[in-house]
Write a structure and sequence with these properties.
Length: 316
């Protein structure tokens, strides 16, 4: 049975109990594909390497801090450049965390259902500054359209607020934040009813399996147009920040604690070899978030049906 511990905010300490004896601790942030991947890794490690594995919930900063301290050993799905600050601190500066070099290519931006894009000619980020076009997104009838910019605590949510200011559509929209599960349930309901929806989207993700979405066109990424100041670093972060071109091409990387290279070298080798396709991650997310599969059951089925992939991870 999976041992699943929740980390208390601001700490990297597991709840006391027998789970403390686990050989390998996998960090699990709060989105579907990383939950599926964590359970897959648990099955592979326990069944093939004979080690005891524990899963712990935690935000990105908590998981990185715990890998730094040795109380966690892996974050299966780190979005770059969203978590660049954590990567720089623990991989480059501290040298306590290692990044897997087999990235999954990813995409981030603003999306609308393709049917809405075609019906209302909404194809570009510039369209979001057109109050007449955007009036269809006023779902509560208060005269101001709403756009979902992400979940509270996401690094991308901070950036999307900066992008809204930089492109100017923060003057048109109410920028809303709430949990992803609610946002994409709203998307599914809107798509079924043929009603408007607009918000942040990223792939790989199950919504690109379940929905026909249009990612709005933007000017190509130009680093000279991106200056991101974090709210934790400056109270005037929004005024001092800019992001007026598209996201740089994102990648997903597994990160693991460097201490594994000495304590459990066979696990470190597994994490170095780990590789997953974007389509596989999207399908994993759908299995858990849409189809309602239990993560542990899904993981056992996935490992049984992907023997060649698993053997590749385990090879030296």
């Amino acid at each position: 049975m999976t041992k699943y511990t929740t980390l208390m905010a601001g700490t990297a300490m597991a709840i006391a109990g027998p789970a403390m004896a686990a050989d390998i601790v996998i960090g699990v942030p709060n989105w579907a594909s990383v939950n599926a991947t964590a359970h897959v890794l648990e099955v592979v490690i326990e069944d093939n390497l004979g080690l005891d594995v524990e899963l712990q919930n935690g935000t990105n900063p908590i998981v990185f801090e715990a890998m730094d301290k040795g109380s966690m050993h892996v974050h299966p799905e780190v979005w770059m450049p969203n978590q660049q600050n954590l990567h720089d601190t623990y991989v480059k500066e501290n040298g306590t965390v290692v990044m897997n070099e087999n990235p999954v290519q990813a995409e981030q931006g603003m999306c609308v259902p393709t049917s809405i894009s075609e019906e209302h000619d909404i194809t570009s980020i510039d369209d979001l500054s057109d109050p007449d076009k955007m009036a269809i997104f006023d779902t509560d009838g208060d005269g101001t359209p709403e756009v979902w910019v992400g979940a509270p605590g996401w690094a991308s949510t901070v950036v999307e607020k900066i992008r809204a200011k930089s492109y100017g559509y923060d003057q048109i929209f109410e920028l809303t934040e709430y949990e992803e599960t609610i946002a994409y349930a709203n998307l599914a309901n809107a798509a079924t009813a043929g009603e408007p929806w607009i918000g942040f989207c990223y792939s790989p993700h199950y919504i690109f399996v379940t929905q026909d979405l249009t990612v709005l066109e933007e000017p190509p990424h130009d680093p000279a147009t991106w200056t991101i100041v974090q709210p934790t670093d400056d109270p005037d972060w929004l005024e001092k920040s800019e992001a007026s071109t598209a996201w740089n091409g994102a990648t997903l990387h597994l990160h693991y604690a460097k201490t594994l290279e000495e304590s459990y070298p066979e696990v470190a080798a597994l994490f170095r070899n780990y590789q997953m396709s974007g389509d596989a991650l999207s399908a994993m997310g759908k299995a858990l978030a849409v189809d309602g599969m239990e993560a542990a059951d899904f993981a056992r089925d996935w490992v049984a049906n992907n023997e060649d992939t698993v053997l590749g991870w385990l090879s030296n």
